[in-house]
Amino acid sequence: MLKRIECSRFFVMIHNFIIILVFLIYNCCDSDANKNVVGVGVVLDTNSNMGSMVDLCMRMAVSDFYAAHPNYTTRLNLHTKNAHTLLDANFAVLELVKQEEVSGLILGPQHGSKQEIFAAAIGETVCVPIVSFTARSSALSYEENRYFVRTALDEAVQAEALAAICKRFKWSEVVVLYEDTEYGHIFLSHATKAFDDVGIELAYTISISTSADDSRILKELNKLKNKPTRVFLVHVGPVLGSRLFAIANTAGMMKEGYAWVVTDSLSIFLDSVDSDARDSMEGVLGIRPYLFASENLKSFQERWKRNMLLDKATGPITELNIHCLWAYDAVTALAIAVENIQPVNSRSDVNTRKYETENTDFKISVLGPRLLRELSNTKFRGLAGDFELVDGKLKASAFEIFNIIGNGERKLGFWTLERGVVRELTAHGEPKNSTSTKELKNVLWPGNSFTRPKGRSILTTEYLRVGIPWKPGYIEFVDAEYFPGTKRVNATGFCIGIFLAALKVLPFSIEYDYYIYNDSLSSNWSYDSMLQKIPQEYDMVVADMTIWAPRAEYVDFALPYSESGVVLVVKNKKPFSMWTFITPFSWDLWVAIIVACILLRFALYASELQIADTSEELAVGPRVETPGMNHFYPIEFLVFPERNRVSNNWSVFILVCWGCMAFILMQSFTANLSAILTVDQLHFDFSDDYYVGYHTGSFMKKFLMEQLRISESKLRPYKSNEEFNDAMSKGSKNGGIDAIFDEIPYMKLFLNRYKSRYKIVGPTYRTGGMGFAFPIGSPLVSHFSKAILNVTQGPNMNSLELESFGPGYSSQDPLSSVISQGASGLTFHEFGGLFIITGTLIAVALIYSKRAAFWPPNVCPLWGPPSNEDSTHALVVEDDAVDIPNNTIEPVRHDHRVELSDLRDISVRGVYLYD
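Below the sequence we write its predicted structure tokens.
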């Protein structure tokens, strides 16, 4: 009985359900009876995960659009055809155009340009717009086929964004890894142009087939690992991308110093990448079209996930990607365009005509051109952003830049076509006007490093093997210290400072290890033997090593970092003595000058004798002269020319002649003495008695023997400045040397230490200067040369020299130290004889002046003291020009004063005091 009741209830429920269903169908048919239905074909592989996702999005787009616009008079009717292969897709296009008579056609993920060309040709023939939401580039230009519309962002725009990002990180070279498909090659052409526009070179381009096994991919990556470029741009799909990064991690290419950037061909499908591959992608940069976080998008994502579960979609359910949103917006745009066409009669808006090149009749759509026109003018804010077509493709919008960290992502910034790389965008998708937005957020690079990869590295080895010499002398240039416990080498010195400064300027990062040469400190070593170990043991040599032509046969040198040249240094033996001041004149000239002074004295005496006799008659008292002083009158005349002690015109003439001759003699004396004190009088000649020193281990021995033709038996090696100084102090006769031949940097350091004891003489012999050595053909040569130029011409060069060599050393002027040593100051020794003579004469004058106390009491000079206080004095004035009456002078006592005004018109010849 109960079973009968339950069965009756079940049949009642079925009956009610049927009645409700019939009612709904009737209402729907009645509501759509007055709607104009426009058919749009869809070609998809609905059996694939991607196809099922897109199919649901398009169906939801139709229902959402008309639910939001129930009063619209048109309706889109999607005719979906399943197409798994290229042939299936082409047949589906023909069927939809011929049999379904669709006014538009939507293509899903395509099977290469052949499907695109075929569908575009059909669309051009029947005037039906072909809409593709997955085609990022086209084999056909917009002018060739205007009926092919792409509602996805163009691949060229993405290439511009990638180039701008690489430019922002200052990378000069990039390696492109792309999937070996037709679209991969099209992307490469866009990338080549975009990177060339910003000055970035595509160093290598590697195509990888989707069917390539892991060993083939590993082989290609190992080739790239041995190349200098460390920036990789990856344009592959999610399946190949997962394998690629796992293999790259195994090959050791996901560590510090490397940079990886992925395009949206992989970045929009990251949720489908397995966890192992995702872990390998730690530190990878990626870009993808930016999705505005709107409420409509959030609501759609939630509804889409529920519908995917209800529809039991093929394959695993993944996150909604941009292709689904582009398909949603494409359907919405078609619905808007159809509604804007008024009136619409899809059945009558067709004509039938025979296509000229085919035997098949095509129905040419009259609605198609109008639909294309309205679609091109349609603008709205869709789920994927602003929808607007420009030249048959979606207008460029912003790209999001992100960093893969673990299983998550971190947004770093954005790229826009108008502003380039920016840090933040407004709610409307516009860049914020702030200076802080010019820089991206901090990036976590592969190897958990926050240091920006420089983009290039060494070629053949993981670490650069840097060879340095271990030597006892000139440690100011290179000094090495080895720690046995840690097996670590610490290097210091001027050369090491230049090397480390150059590393900071290089456009790529280098990891290096020091390797010591001559670790036993053997004296039987040379720089040439060290260079012979390149490249077997060293990748480069950093040392105080001269660029020399014979060495360039087996190594390459970077530009020099020090001044070049070989000079000769000798002892500073100036020929100065205590009688140097008399050397300008020879002994015969000195004798001639003395004789001339004596003869001149007698000539003046004879000339003045007659005048003196005449004046004696006018004198009141006796005339007394200082004994012997008149013999020095020629010299006194030169020293005190203002004293006119001659009265004869002929005497004046004699003095004028003597003055001219003396002036010439004095000027000649001054010039010759200056030449003696300033001009180097040392003439160094190589003879059998001289030995020359040179730097141990350097090229100087061959240089002196081959170019200067000095016998090997005359050459003696030394290790340091101390040994050079000891040998020079001994001299050749005592087992030392008399000269040093070495390079300017060493000798400047030598002269700076020992000051004026030595000097540089002779010419400077040209060399190449000091430089770093590399294997022949090494690409590091050009980069280090540029870096060394920046260092040596930069502001830190003086500080490096001061730190290594101390004060007083400067490479800015190669002759600065030479000039300072050659222009040494004069000492007391050079003028000792002159001081002796002057002192002797002063002593004699003092003794002579003391004799005034012993003069006769009746005669003494006016400047002498009186003989006694009570004596009577008389003033006697001799003057032949004044007539004194009676030829007498009244006695004047010592307390009487003589007014000078009474004598102003008298020419005084002599004044005497007497009792």
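The mean pLDDT is 76.
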